[in-house]
Amino acid sequence: MRGAVACQLVIASLVACALTACGPDVSEASVTTSVPDRTTSLSPSEPLELTAQRGVLTSVNVTANGAPVPGKIDRSGHKWTIDSPLAFGTTYQVHAVAHDQDGVPSIPLNSSFTTATPTDIVNVERTRPTDGDTVGIAMPVSIYFDKPVKDRAAVERRLKIETSVPTEGSFNWYSDDQVNWRPKDYWKAGTQVKVRADLYGIDTGAGVMGDKNFESNFTIGRDQRSVGDVNAHTFTVYQDGQEIRKMDASYGRPAYPTQHGIHVATERHDSVRMNSWSWGGPAQGSPGAYDEVLPNAVRISNNGEYVHTNTASTGAQGSSNVTHGCVNLSSTDGRWFLEFTQIGDPVEIVGSTKPLTPADGDIWDWTVPWEEYVKGSALFHSP
Description:
Oligomer: single chain
Protein backbone atom coordinates (compact mmCIF):
# COMPACT_ATOMS: atom_id res chain seq x y z
CA MET A 1 0.00 0.00 0.00
CA ARG A 2 2.81 2.32 0.90
CA GLY A 3 4.45 1.55 -2.44
CA ALA A 4 1.28 2.48 -4.29
CA VAL A 5 1.04 5.79 -2.42
CA ALA A 6 4.69 6.57 -3.12
CA CYS A 7 4.18 5.77 -6.77
CA GLN A 8 1.18 8.10 -6.92
CA LEU A 9 3.23 10.91 -5.31
CA VAL A 10 6.04 10.52 -7.84
CA ILE A 11 3.60 10.54 -10.74
CA ALA A 12 1.85 13.63 -9.36
CA SER A 13 5.19 15.37 -8.94
CA LEU A 14 6.15 14.60 -12.52
CA VAL A 15 2.81 15.88 -13.80
CA ALA A 16 3.15 19.08 -11.77
CA CYS A 17 6.68 19.57 -13.08
CA ALA A 18 5.45 19.17 -16.64
CA LEU A 19 2.60 21.60 -16.09
CA THR A 20 4.89 24.27 -14.58
CA ALA A 21 7.69 23.89 -17.14
CA CYS A 22 10.36 22.69 -14.74
CA GLY A 23 13.86 23.22 -16.11
CA PRO A 24 16.02 26.32 -16.86
CA ASP A 25 14.21 29.60 -16.22
CA VAL A 26 13.15 31.56 -19.31
CA SER A 27 14.46 35.16 -19.32
CA GLU A 28 12.11 38.08 -19.71
CA ALA A 29 14.97 40.06 -21.28
CA SER A 30 15.71 40.35 -24.98
CA VAL A 31 18.11 42.34 -27.19
CA THR A 32 17.16 44.27 -30.31
CA THR A 33 19.36 46.00 -32.88
CA SER A 34 18.81 49.11 -34.97
CA VAL A 35 20.16 47.29 -38.04
CA PRO A 36 18.20 44.24 -39.19
CA ASP A 37 20.11 40.99 -39.59
CA ARG A 38 21.66 40.38 -43.04
CA THR A 39 21.22 43.98 -44.19
CA THR A 40 23.43 44.79 -47.19
CA SER A 41 24.65 48.10 -48.63
CA LEU A 42 23.76 49.92 -45.42
CA SER A 43 24.61 53.62 -45.42
CA PRO A 44 27.51 54.19 -42.98
CA SER A 45 25.63 57.24 -41.74
CA GLU A 46 23.11 54.95 -40.03
CA PRO A 47 23.64 54.50 -36.28
CA LEU A 48 24.28 51.10 -34.74
CA GLU A 49 22.42 50.73 -31.43
CA LEU A 50 21.66 47.66 -29.34
CA THR A 51 18.82 47.86 -26.82
CA ALA A 52 17.89 45.60 -23.91
CA GLN A 53 14.16 45.05 -23.46
CA ARG A 54 13.01 44.22 -19.88
CA GLY A 55 16.60 43.83 -18.74
CA VAL A 56 20.14 45.19 -18.94
CA LEU A 57 22.92 44.49 -21.39
CA THR A 58 25.65 42.34 -19.88
CA SER A 59 27.69 41.31 -22.90
CA VAL A 60 28.24 43.07 -26.24
CA ASN A 61 30.75 42.02 -28.86
CA VAL A 62 30.79 43.76 -32.24
CA THR A 63 33.46 43.16 -34.87
CA ALA A 64 34.22 44.78 -38.22
CA ASN A 65 35.84 42.38 -40.67
CA GLY A 66 36.96 40.49 -37.56
CA ALA A 67 38.37 43.47 -35.63
CA PRO A 68 36.74 44.61 -32.35
CA VAL A 69 34.51 47.68 -32.60
CA PRO A 70 34.49 50.03 -29.57
CA GLY A 71 31.20 51.10 -28.06
CA LYS A 72 29.59 52.00 -24.75
CA ILE A 73 26.68 50.81 -22.64
CA ASP A 74 24.81 53.75 -21.12
CA ARG A 75 24.33 54.24 -17.37
CA SER A 76 20.92 52.60 -17.41
CA GLY A 77 22.41 49.49 -18.96
CA HIS A 78 19.67 49.47 -21.56
CA LYS A 79 21.50 50.79 -24.63
CA TRP A 80 24.84 50.22 -26.36
CA THR A 81 26.06 52.67 -29.01
CA ILE A 82 29.05 52.53 -31.31
CA ASP A 83 31.85 55.03 -30.58
CA SER A 84 32.53 56.06 -34.19
CA PRO A 85 30.63 55.97 -37.49
CA LEU A 86 30.39 52.77 -39.45
CA ALA A 87 33.02 52.25 -42.14
CA PHE A 88 32.45 51.84 -45.87
CA GLY A 89 32.37 48.36 -47.42
CA THR A 90 32.62 46.47 -44.13
CA THR A 91 30.95 43.36 -42.72
CA TYR A 92 29.90 43.66 -39.07
CA GLN A 93 29.14 40.78 -36.71
CA VAL A 94 27.02 41.51 -33.62
CA HIS A 95 26.68 39.32 -30.50
CA ALA A 96 24.88 40.56 -27.39
CA VAL A 97 23.21 39.19 -24.26
CA ALA A 98 20.99 40.84 -21.64
CA HIS A 99 19.89 39.67 -18.19
CA ASP A 100 16.47 40.25 -16.67
CA GLN A 101 15.84 41.41 -13.08
CA ASP A 102 16.20 37.84 -11.82
CA GLY A 103 19.60 37.50 -13.46
CA VAL A 104 18.39 35.13 -16.13
CA PRO A 105 20.24 35.59 -19.46
CA SER A 106 18.34 36.33 -22.65
CA ILE A 107 18.53 34.40 -25.85
CA PRO A 108 21.73 35.75 -27.47
CA LEU A 109 21.39 38.23 -30.31
CA ASN A 110 23.52 37.16 -33.26
CA SER A 111 23.34 39.19 -36.44
CA SER A 112 25.48 40.53 -39.26
CA PHE A 113 25.26 43.27 -41.86
CA THR A 114 27.38 44.91 -44.56
CA THR A 115 27.83 48.61 -45.29
CA ALA A 116 27.81 50.20 -48.73
CA THR A 117 30.87 50.84 -50.87
CA PRO A 118 30.69 54.23 -52.66
CA THR A 119 31.20 54.54 -56.40
CA ASP A 120 32.92 57.89 -55.80
CA ILE A 121 33.36 60.51 -53.07
CA VAL A 122 31.95 64.05 -52.85
CA ASN A 123 32.54 66.56 -50.05
CA VAL A 124 32.20 70.22 -49.21
CA GLU A 125 35.16 71.95 -50.82
CA ARG A 126 34.70 75.32 -49.09
CA THR A 127 32.13 77.77 -47.81
CA ARG A 128 31.69 81.50 -47.97
CA PRO A 129 31.92 83.08 -45.41
CA THR A 130 34.91 81.07 -44.25
CA ASP A 131 35.36 79.84 -40.71
CA GLY A 132 35.92 82.69 -38.26
CA ASP A 133 34.78 85.48 -40.60
CA THR A 134 32.77 88.50 -39.53
CA VAL A 135 30.55 89.70 -42.36
CA GLY A 136 27.82 92.19 -43.20
CA ILE A 137 24.09 91.77 -42.83
CA ALA A 138 23.46 90.87 -46.50
CA MET A 139 26.00 88.07 -46.82
CA PRO A 140 24.45 84.78 -47.95
CA VAL A 141 25.98 81.42 -47.10
CA SER A 142 27.55 79.69 -50.09
CA ILE A 143 28.43 76.00 -49.92
CA TYR A 144 30.66 74.64 -52.70
CA PHE A 145 31.04 70.91 -53.42
CA ASP A 146 34.09 69.33 -55.02
CA LYS A 147 31.89 67.41 -57.47
CA PRO A 148 28.42 67.98 -58.93
CA VAL A 149 25.60 66.67 -56.73
CA LYS A 150 22.97 64.51 -58.43
CA ASP A 151 20.46 64.12 -55.60
CA ARG A 152 20.10 67.69 -54.34
CA ALA A 153 17.28 66.83 -51.95
CA ALA A 154 19.31 64.10 -50.21
CA VAL A 155 22.17 66.54 -49.70
CA GLU A 156 20.00 69.46 -48.62
CA ARG A 157 18.42 67.34 -45.89
CA ARG A 158 21.89 67.04 -44.37
CA LEU A 159 22.72 70.76 -44.50
CA LYS A 160 22.01 72.87 -41.43
CA ILE A 161 22.25 76.60 -40.79
CA GLU A 162 22.13 77.13 -37.03
CA THR A 163 21.77 80.67 -35.69
CA SER A 164 22.02 82.24 -32.25
CA VAL A 165 18.74 84.09 -32.83
CA PRO A 166 15.70 82.75 -34.73
CA THR A 167 16.29 83.46 -38.43
CA GLU A 168 14.00 82.44 -41.26
CA GLY A 169 15.87 81.48 -44.39
CA SER A 170 16.03 79.15 -47.37
CA PHE A 171 18.49 77.25 -49.50
CA ASN A 172 18.71 77.97 -53.22
CA TRP A 173 20.72 75.82 -55.61
CA TYR A 174 22.85 77.94 -57.92
CA SER A 175 24.17 74.82 -59.67
CA ASP A 176 24.88 71.15 -58.99
CA ASP A 177 28.06 72.10 -57.13
CA GLN A 178 26.89 75.22 -55.28
CA VAL A 179 23.98 75.90 -52.94
CA ASN A 180 23.35 79.21 -51.18
CA TRP A 181 21.30 80.08 -48.11
CA ARG A 182 20.03 83.54 -47.28
CA PRO A 183 17.78 84.90 -44.57
CA LYS A 184 14.38 86.20 -45.60
CA ASP A 185 15.44 89.64 -44.40
CA TYR A 186 18.88 90.97 -43.61
CA TRP A 187 20.70 89.23 -40.78
CA LYS A 188 20.38 90.72 -37.32
CA ALA A 189 23.66 92.31 -36.23
CA GLY A 190 25.67 90.11 -33.89
CA THR A 191 24.10 86.81 -34.98
CA GLN A 192 26.34 83.78 -34.54
CA VAL A 193 26.01 81.31 -37.42
CA LYS A 194 27.07 77.67 -37.68
CA VAL A 195 27.10 75.90 -41.05
CA ARG A 196 26.92 72.10 -40.92
CA ALA A 197 27.09 69.58 -43.73
CA ASP A 198 26.63 66.07 -42.32
CA LEU A 199 27.43 64.23 -45.53
CA TYR A 200 29.35 61.22 -44.22
CA GLY A 201 27.82 58.09 -45.71
CA ILE A 202 25.07 59.97 -47.54
CA ASP A 203 24.30 58.80 -51.07
CA THR A 204 24.25 61.97 -53.16
CA GLY A 205 23.16 60.07 -56.25
CA ALA A 206 24.41 57.07 -58.25
CA GLY A 207 26.27 55.72 -55.23
CA VAL A 208 28.48 58.79 -54.83
CA MET A 209 28.83 59.41 -51.09
CA GLY A 210 30.29 61.94 -48.72
CA ASP A 211 33.15 60.61 -46.61
CA LYS A 212 33.40 63.45 -44.10
CA ASN A 213 31.27 66.00 -42.28
CA PHE A 214 31.91 69.74 -42.43
CA GLU A 215 31.39 72.57 -39.98
CA SER A 216 32.10 76.30 -40.15
CA ASN A 217 31.23 79.27 -37.94
CA PHE A 218 30.97 82.97 -38.64
CA THR A 219 29.54 86.13 -37.11
CA ILE A 220 27.33 88.91 -38.44
CA GLY A 221 28.91 92.27 -37.70
CA ARG A 222 27.36 95.70 -37.25
CA ASP A 223 24.36 96.75 -39.31
CA GLN A 224 25.76 98.90 -42.11
CA ARG A 225 23.92 99.54 -45.34
CA SER A 226 24.44 102.04 -48.14
CA VAL A 227 21.98 103.64 -50.53
CA GLY A 228 23.12 105.03 -53.86
CA ASP A 229 20.60 107.43 -55.41
CA VAL A 230 21.32 107.65 -59.12
CA ASN A 231 19.07 110.66 -59.71
CA ALA A 232 20.15 112.63 -56.64
CA HIS A 233 23.83 111.78 -57.34
CA THR A 234 24.37 110.89 -53.69
CA PHE A 235 25.76 107.90 -51.82
CA THR A 236 24.63 107.59 -48.20
CA VAL A 237 25.88 105.20 -45.53
CA TYR A 238 23.82 104.16 -42.50
CA GLN A 239 24.83 102.28 -39.37
CA ASP A 240 22.22 100.85 -37.03
CA GLY A 241 19.58 102.94 -38.78
CA GLN A 242 21.46 106.23 -38.39
CA GLU A 243 22.96 108.19 -41.28
CA ILE A 244 26.71 108.47 -40.71
CA ARG A 245 27.92 109.92 -44.03
CA LYS A 246 26.36 111.36 -47.18
CA MET A 247 28.63 111.72 -50.19
CA ASP A 248 28.47 113.19 -53.67
CA ALA A 249 28.67 110.52 -56.35
CA SER A 250 28.53 109.95 -60.07
CA TYR A 251 26.85 106.89 -61.55
CA GLY A 252 26.63 105.21 -64.95
CA ARG A 253 25.89 107.35 -67.98
CA PRO A 254 22.72 106.51 -69.97
CA ALA A 255 24.56 104.01 -72.19
CA TYR A 256 25.99 102.17 -69.17
CA PRO A 257 23.58 102.66 -66.28
CA THR A 258 24.48 101.53 -62.78
CA GLN A 259 22.05 98.70 -62.11
CA HIS A 260 19.41 99.19 -59.46
CA GLY A 261 18.76 96.67 -56.72
CA ILE A 262 20.54 95.21 -53.70
CA HIS A 263 24.23 94.66 -54.34
CA VAL A 264 26.60 93.02 -51.84
CA ALA A 265 30.16 94.10 -51.08
CA THR A 266 32.34 91.10 -51.94
CA GLU A 267 35.88 92.47 -52.26
CA ARG A 268 37.95 95.37 -50.90
CA HIS A 269 41.10 96.61 -52.66
CA ASP A 270 43.47 99.53 -52.21
CA SER A 271 43.60 99.58 -56.00
CA VAL A 272 42.26 97.50 -58.88
CA ARG A 273 43.11 97.35 -62.56
CA MET A 274 39.92 97.90 -64.53
CA ASN A 275 39.26 97.69 -68.24
CA SER A 276 36.12 98.06 -70.28
CA TRP A 277 36.30 94.80 -72.22
CA SER A 278 36.30 92.60 -69.11
CA TRP A 279 32.60 93.29 -68.46
CA GLY A 280 31.24 93.73 -72.00
CA GLY A 281 31.97 97.45 -72.43
CA PRO A 282 33.93 99.08 -75.27
CA ALA A 283 36.40 96.63 -76.81
CA GLN A 284 40.12 97.12 -76.48
CA GLY A 285 41.32 99.79 -78.88
CA SER A 286 37.81 101.07 -79.66
CA PRO A 287 36.39 104.52 -78.81
CA GLY A 288 35.52 104.79 -75.12
CA ALA A 289 37.70 101.86 -74.09
CA TYR A 290 39.73 102.17 -70.90
CA ASP A 291 42.40 100.23 -69.03
CA GLU A 292 43.57 101.82 -65.80
CA VAL A 293 44.34 101.23 -62.15
CA LEU A 294 41.85 102.92 -59.81
CA PRO A 295 42.11 103.29 -56.02
CA ASN A 296 39.85 102.52 -53.07
CA ALA A 297 37.75 99.89 -54.83
CA VAL A 298 34.90 97.91 -53.28
CA ARG A 299 33.38 95.31 -55.62
CA ILE A 300 29.59 95.19 -55.38
CA SER A 301 28.73 92.78 -58.20
CA ASN A 302 30.47 90.34 -60.49
CA ASN A 303 29.66 92.30 -63.64
CA GLY A 304 32.32 94.96 -63.14
CA GLU A 305 30.52 97.29 -60.73
CA TYR A 306 32.63 98.87 -57.98
CA VAL A 307 32.34 101.76 -55.59
CA HIS A 308 35.70 103.48 -56.02
CA THR A 309 37.64 106.70 -56.16
CA ASN A 310 37.90 108.36 -59.57
CA THR A 311 39.42 111.83 -59.61
CA ALA A 312 38.60 112.15 -63.33
CA SER A 313 34.88 112.41 -62.49
CA THR A 314 35.24 114.70 -59.46
CA GLY A 315 33.56 117.60 -61.28
CA ALA A 316 30.51 115.46 -62.07
CA GLN A 317 30.13 113.92 -58.63
CA GLY A 318 26.97 115.25 -57.03
CA SER A 319 25.60 116.67 -60.27
CA SER A 320 25.70 114.24 -63.23
CA ASN A 321 26.29 110.62 -64.18
CA VAL A 322 29.30 110.05 -66.41
CA THR A 323 30.74 106.63 -65.48
CA HIS A 324 30.66 103.25 -67.21
CA GLY A 325 28.46 101.89 -64.42
CA CYS A 326 30.62 102.14 -61.32
CA VAL A 327 29.87 104.42 -58.39
CA ASN A 328 32.52 107.15 -58.42
CA LEU A 329 33.54 108.98 -55.24
CA SER A 330 36.19 111.54 -54.35
CA SER A 331 39.56 110.47 -52.96
CA THR A 332 38.54 111.27 -49.39
CA ASP A 333 35.11 109.67 -49.63
CA GLY A 334 36.39 106.64 -51.52
CA ARG A 335 39.03 105.94 -48.90
CA TRP A 336 36.54 106.39 -46.10
CA PHE A 337 34.08 103.97 -47.69
CA LEU A 338 36.79 101.36 -48.30
CA GLU A 339 37.87 101.47 -44.66
CA PHE A 340 34.33 101.39 -43.26
CA THR A 341 33.05 98.62 -45.53
CA GLN A 342 32.75 95.02 -44.40
CA ILE A 343 32.40 92.13 -46.84
CA GLY A 344 28.69 91.31 -46.95
CA ASP A 345 27.44 94.88 -46.48
CA PRO A 346 24.43 95.68 -48.69
CA VAL A 347 24.68 98.48 -51.23
CA GLU A 348 21.27 99.35 -52.64
CA ILE A 349 21.15 101.36 -55.84
CA VAL A 350 17.89 103.19 -56.56
CA GLY A 351 16.58 105.25 -59.46
CA SER A 352 18.34 103.69 -62.45
CA THR A 353 16.75 102.26 -65.57
CA LYS A 354 18.40 98.83 -65.48
CA PRO A 355 17.88 96.17 -62.77
CA LEU A 356 20.47 93.90 -61.24
CA THR A 357 19.56 90.30 -62.15
CA PRO A 358 20.78 86.75 -61.42
CA ALA A 359 22.90 87.00 -64.57
CA ASP A 360 25.00 89.76 -63.04
CA GLY A 361 27.17 88.01 -60.52
CA ASP A 362 27.94 85.26 -58.07
CA ILE A 363 25.78 86.83 -55.35
CA TRP A 364 22.34 87.49 -56.76
CA ASP A 365 20.38 86.22 -53.76
CA TRP A 366 18.72 89.59 -53.12
CA THR A 367 17.78 90.26 -56.74
CA VAL A 368 14.72 87.97 -56.69
CA PRO A 369 11.64 88.18 -54.45
CA TRP A 370 11.60 85.89 -51.44
CA GLU A 371 8.64 83.96 -52.86
CA GLU A 372 10.78 83.06 -55.88
CA TYR A 373 13.98 82.47 -53.96
CA VAL A 374 12.52 79.68 -51.82
CA LYS A 375 11.59 77.76 -54.97
CA GLY A 376 15.30 77.20 -55.53
CA SER A 377 15.33 74.77 -52.60
CA ALA A 378 15.35 71.09 -53.53
CA LEU A 379 12.89 70.57 -50.67
CA PHE A 380 10.43 73.26 -51.73
CA HIS A 381 6.80 72.21 -51.83
CA SER A 382 4.07 74.48 -53.15
CA PRO A 383 1.60 75.49 -50.42
